[in-house]
């Protein structure tokens, strides 16, 4: 199958090594400004995917992100930020990267070329029809991801994809294909740049909107965040002060006793 790999096309800029630092920075920023607009065009597809994920997660379903290299790392990053931000167990959003966790820091040779491994990993996690599998690949050609999406779909599991090329083999395997066309990279083919930035934005959009719809945010606040450091305890205490009108120390004690803003405020309201 031949299709145009926009993500691999030559940079719009020449002779990068001859430019000043300031010129390089301004050029990169110029390119980065295209990313949010490319993501904006994907909102209908992101909406379509999220709207199908929410009812599945309400029944105990999970999101699996799958990718290799930068794409895999970004999936693992987004998944790892869900427990501290929203107080969800780490089993709800799971990031899988070709080559396993060692690939987070080191390139793992040929890991992304194994078309069977992705589905095997999903089976190791007991994948079922309530789950969602989202493939992430700038090129849209990563065999590890394509094989997993194909098998997931055969088993009636919701599949999504995020790529930087139109009509890719990966998109063909997804129920909902998100195609974020950011154009050629500043350094030709370096998809850690605009493609990676856009992927991060879309992953933030998916999980944040899902978690809001799952009731993990109140008003505009992270009422279920983990109290893993002093800054977060202070933030949580101030939320309780604002909502219940209590003195700071009393609010802090209430928060620490109950472990989250939501549990603390719910307990106080039921008992006063």
UniProtKB/TrEMBL annotation:
Superkingdom as given in the UniProt entry: Bacteria
Active site: 81, 112
Every SIS domain range: 53-216
UniProt-recorded Gene Ontology molecular function terms: carbohydrate derivative binding; carbon-oxygen lyase activity; ether hydrolase activity
Catalytic activity: N-acetyl-D-muramate 6-phosphate + H2O = N-acetyl-D-glucosamine 6-phosphate + (R)-lactate
One of the Pfam families matching this protein, by short name: GKRP_SIS_N
GO BP, one annotated term: amino sugar catabolic process
UniProt keyword annotations, A-Z: Carbohydrate metabolism, Lyase
Catalytic activity, EC: 4.2.1.126
SUPFAM superfamilies for the chain: SIS domain
Pathway: Amino-sugar metabolism; N-acetylmuramate degradation
Gene3D superfamilies assigned: Glucose-6-phosphate isomerase like protein, domain 1
Coiled-coil boundaries: none
Quaternary structure (record): Homodimer.
Family annotation (NCBIfam families): N-acetylmuramic acid 6-phosphate etherase, PRK05441.1, PRK12570.1
Miscellaneous comment text of the record: A lyase-type mechanism (elimination/hydration) is suggested for the cleavage of the lactyl ether bond of MurNAc 6-phosphate, with the formation of an alpha,beta-unsaturated aldehyde intermediate with (E)-stereochemistry, followed by the syn addition of water to give product.
Family: Belongs to the GCKR-like family. MurNAc-6-P etherase subfamily.
Its job: Specifically catalyzes the cleavage of the D-lactyl ether substituent of MurNAc 6-phosphate, producing GlcNAc 6-phosphate and D-lactate.
Stored HAMAP family: MurQ (MF_00068)
Record-given protein name: N-acetylmuramic acid 6-phosphate etherase
Record organism: Bacteroides coprosuis DSM 18011
């Amino acid at each position: 199958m031949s299709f145009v790999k926009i993500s691999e096309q030559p940079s719009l800029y020449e002779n990068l090594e001859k430019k000043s630092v300031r010129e390089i920075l301004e050029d990169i920023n110029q390119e980065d400004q295209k990313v949010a607009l490319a993501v904006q065009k994907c909102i209908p597809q992101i909406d379509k995917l999220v709207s199908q994920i929410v009812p599945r997660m309400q029944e105990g379903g999970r999101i699996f992100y799958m990718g290799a290299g930068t794409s895999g790392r970004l999936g693992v990053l987004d998944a790892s930020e869900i427990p501290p931000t929203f107080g969800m167990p780490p089993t709800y959003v799971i990031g899988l990267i070709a080559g396993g966790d060692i690939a987070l820091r080191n390139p793992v040779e040929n890991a992304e070329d194994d078309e069977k491994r992705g589905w095997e990993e999903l089976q190791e996690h007991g994948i079922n029809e309530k789950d969602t599998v989202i493939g992430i690949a700038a090129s849209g050609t990563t065999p590890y991801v394509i094989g997993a999406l194909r098998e997931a779909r055969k088993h009636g599991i919701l599949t999504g994809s995020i790529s930087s090329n139109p009509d890719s083999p990966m998109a063909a395997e997804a129920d909902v294909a998100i195609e974020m066309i950011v154009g050629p990279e500043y350094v030709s083919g370096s998809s850690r740049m605009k493609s990676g930035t856009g992927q991060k934005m879309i992953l933030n959009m998916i999980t944040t909107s899902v978690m809001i719809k799952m009731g993990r945010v109140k008003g505009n606040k992270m009422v279920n965040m983990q109290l893993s450091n002093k800054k977060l305890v202070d933030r949580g205490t101030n939320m309780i002060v604002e909502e219940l009108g209590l003195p700071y120390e009393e609010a802090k004690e209430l928060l620490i006793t109950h472990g989250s803003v939501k549990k603390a405020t719910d307990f106080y309201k039921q008992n006063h």
